[in-house]
Amino acid sequence: MVIGILGANKTPRVRSSLLRFCCIVFFALAGSSPSFPASLQIAGQTTAPGQTISVSLSFSPEGQPISALQFDIEWDQAVSLKLIPGDGLRQSGKLLYTAQLSPRMLRCLIVGLDREVLPNGEMLRIFVSVDPSASAGTIPIGLASAFAANPEGEPEAIRSTPGTIQISESAIGTPLPQQGVLNAASLLLDPVSPGEIITLLGSFPANPILLFNEIPAPVIYADPHQVNAIVPFGLNLDAPAGLEVRTGDRAIARLSVPVQPATPAIFTQAGTGLGQGAILNEDYTPNSAANPATPGSIIMLFGTGFGRILWAQPAAHLNHYHEEAQRCRALSNRGNRT
Fold first, then answer.
1. CA separation (Å) from 173 to 13, 128, 264?
2. What is the pTM of this model?
3. Alpha-carbon dihedral sign for residues 312, 315, 320, 324
């Protein structure tokens, strides 16, 4: 009403100026401020051709109750991307789903079967590998088609800020960043343990050779930007291990990685380290909420990082474990929880 009275007999230009002024005064007197939308942002970094860096895709709710996100990540042909869940996403209990829309566009959906809101923090950790022939300059990592929803499933405003990767011949980089040595099941940056299956994210040659303290590690999968290998069972646990990636007689990366006797983790059905575990029921069907294991049945868990394996123990210990397993099975059959 005040705005209408003040502008009633003024010229259009004066009315416009008064309207802006009165809006400012209204917000100041009311003690409130405009609501800013939630935001997604990719951090920028600098690296050199042939190197790999990790960048963060972070989320800020700006006070808005955001329960689900969807967005597309786009990248230039001069780089390749691999991504894993960030700490904020892990803490939220939500799940990550992805779909390849094109060779250089990935759709990401972060959602869960609950009404919990997403926290402020890192949603994704993105590993960006730069082509060895890439020219110096700026490479965009785009964010498009960003949507957000509140716990009621209603849309909420969200803005997205893309990232940029500066490529410079003089930049200091590495084909294998420290953050790229992960437990293959959880995709967490944990100390390595004897016999653990690990995932390395970086820039690798064809037929890479991995060594831990100069002991070869069996490579079970390799592509230009990911290697899966088994940590030697004879890993020395008295000091950090020297990890070396080689091609022929040339070392392309050297890292010092922490060690510990065991880093147990269960593989997940989605392969993201989040959600339902890779578990089979006694009839070899996937275990789930809709297909639970029956009391007293045997389940099969697929995991890694359990340390030196059982058959390395003396035979007497094996007999003891067998007897304990039989006793637990008998108690379970009687309906007791052991």
1. 57, 12, 31
2. 0.81
3. positive
Let me know: does 183 contact 199? Beta carbons within 8 Å: yes
Positive or negative, the Cα torsion across 247, 272, 63, 147? positive
Contact between 211 and 200 under an 8 Å Cβ cutoff? The reply is no
In the predicted structure, residue 31 carries a pLDDT above the cut 90? no
d(CA 181, CA 184): 9
Question: What domains can be seen in the chain, in order of their start residue?
Answer: 1-34 (no CATH), 38-167 (2.60.40.680), 178-307 (2.60.40.10)
pLDDT, tens digit, 9 for 90 and up, residues 193-222: 999 999 999 999 999 999 999 999 999 999
The amino acid that residue 112 corresponds to is G
Instruction: Report the DSSP pairing between strands 38-42 and 52-60.
Output: antiparallel
Dihedral of CA atoms 201, 203, 207, 211 in degrees, nearest 10, equals -60
Which helix H or strand E contains 278, and what residues bound it? none
Structure tokens at 295: 């009391």
Q: What is the bridge-based pairing of β-strands 279-280 and 300-301? A: antiparallel
- In angstroms, the CA 269 to CA 272 distance is 8
Over its C-alpha atoms, the chain yields an Rg (Å, rounded) of 27
Q: Is 59 helix (H, G, I), strand (E, B) or coil?
A: strand
Residue 175 DSSP label: S
Summarised one tens digit per residue, pLDDT across range 225-282 is 999 999 999 999 999 999 999 998 899 999 999 999 999 999 999 999 999 999 999 9
282: helix, strand or coil: coil
In 3D space, the residue among 237, 247, 251, 156 whose CA is nearest the CA of residue 206 turns out to be 247
Q: What is the pLDDT of residues 52-75, one digit of tens each?
A: 999 999 999 999 999 999 999 999
Average pLDDT, the chain: 86
- Type of residue found at 216: P
Tokens of 294: 């029956």
The residue type found at 177 is P
